[in-house]
Amino acid sequence: MLFSGLAPMGDDPILMVSKMFRACENPNKVDLGVGVYKDAEGNTAILNSVKKAEKYLVENQATKTYLSPAGNPEFNQLVQDMMIGDDHVAVKENRVSTFQTPGGTGGVRIGLEFVKTCNPNANIWISDPTWPNHTAITKSLGLTPKPYRYYDIKGGEFLYEGMLEDLSGAKEGDVVILHGCCHNASGADLSKEQWNELADLMKEKGLIPFVDFAYQGFGNGIDEDSYAARLMAEKLPEALIASSCSKNFAMYRDRAGAITLVSSSEELHSTNASHLLGAVRANYSMPPDHGAAVAAHILGTPDLKAEWINEVDEMRNRVKKMRTLFVELMNKKAPNSGFGYIAEQNGMFSYLTLSAEQIQTLINDHYIFFMANGRVNMAGLTEDNIEYVTDAIASLFIS
Ligand SMILES: Cc1ncc(COP(=O)(O)O)c(C=O)c1O
User: Fold this and answer.
1) For 314-349, what is each residue's pLDDT tens digit?
2) Cα dihedral across residues 253, 97, 231, 136: positive or negative
3) d(CA 399, CA 390)
4) Which residue, 127, 184, 186, 337, is the most exposed by fewest CB within 10 angstroms?
5) Strands (E), the chain
């Protein structure tokens, strides 16, 4: 029998947290697990700009005929402009292409397939810790993942020197997955100076940056957050960038994202792009239309774009506000608890520097659900639940 020799894969830890949250009947329960933005009422609402674009599409879209493996050309152009700009040196030299993919995950997958086509022996350097799918996709393609030090979860410390040291040991042609902003799961990002130094090191060593850019707008702003993507595509001759519209358009289930390929020359670029699109064709033929059509309409319509930027600003500012308030309350309730770093970090995620036992106490006794390794989604905090959450955490420090 073919289908009889498999061992169970085990539950996805993120989905497990959601399941436990749903099953919990305590009215005080708080979900700081799943990685989606939540508003002040705790809802993951559809953005107004998205609703308006959807209405426009329902009324005006004239066909549902096939697109192409590259997806929606307008979306591809607008996303590329937003990420690296039309004045970027690699764009001017005609050696950049952006192709729509099913979410940022699709972008990571297609990008790594392309790497494998170019060199199946390339190592894929992945930050420790990271979004677990980086390792899963790398392994599923038969490529070799290599961890580089990035963040000390228990100490709450960004390990920049360790990162440089580990990447100094990479071999020429190896690929380095970098979080473009809002590192998932630590919230710790490189400064501009550190990005510059890293780019120099990677150039010297002949390493290829693969920027995973899933949170544009959630760090410091749409333009500000693209610093690393622009820099890597400028300082290094070759690069890949996977981007996502899941978070910044709140279109998680519509699966809109992109893979951007930067080649070293215009001559090589069309051949490279043809292989990347070959990977698309052999996987899912072409990406789904809806989410990308919505994003393209928003980005291409000045009024709607302005409204969308306001909505992104609002999401970012709300998370920042919760970070600041969390630190203020913890400083008041448990002055030595040491959570000051939370206010400095970016995006939705941070680790709580707590022991495994303390984490279990929060989950089992206080019904606050988050990852067993301490990763919390700060967007799950609201004005309504933050006193409850900080009281519960503070109780762990009172002996
Ligand atoms: C670092 C990182 N990359 C990629 C993705 C994929 O996003 P998408 O839902 O668009 O596939 C995520 C989503 O959580 C992420 O955190």
Assistant:
1) 999 999 999 999 999 999 999 989 999 999 999 999
2) positive
3) 16
4) 337
5) 30-31, 96-102, 123-128, 144-149, 151-152, 157-158, 175-179, 208-213, 239-244, 256-262, 349-351, 368-369, 375-377
Compute, in angstroms, the gap from residue 244 CA to the centroid of ligand 1.
Answer: 7
CB of 138 closer than 8 Å to CB of 112: yes
Nearest CA to ligand 1 atom 14: 35
**Is the CATH number of domain 66-300 3.40.50.10540?**
no
User: At which residue do the structure tokens 């959450």 appear?
Assistant: 389
Check if CATH label 1.10.10.10 holds for domain 11-46+309-395.
no
Query: Is 66-300 in the same CATH topology as 11-46+309-395?
Result: no
Ligand 1 pocket test: which of 75, 105, 348 has the largest number of ligand atoms within 8 Å of its C-beta?
105
Condensed to tens digits (0 to 9), the pLDDT of residues 68-85 reads 999 999 999 999 999 999
Domain boundaries, the chain: 11-46+309-395, 66-300
Q: Whose CA is nearest to atom 3 of ligand 1?
A: 214
> Per-residue pLDDT averaged across 289-301, rounded?
98
Hey, what are 265's tokens? 């020359």
Whether the Cβ atoms of residue 229 and residue 104 lie closer than 8 Å to each other = no
What atom of ligand 1 comes closest to residue 212's alpha carbon?
3
Q: How far is the CA of 91 from the centre of ligand 1 (A)?
A: 25
List ligand 1's pocket residues with C-beta within 6 A: 35, 103-105, 131, 179, 184, 212, 214, 244, 246, 252, 257
User: CA 35 → CA 47, 309, 396, distances in Å?
Assistant: 17, 21, 25
Q: What is the pLDDT of residue 398?
A: 82
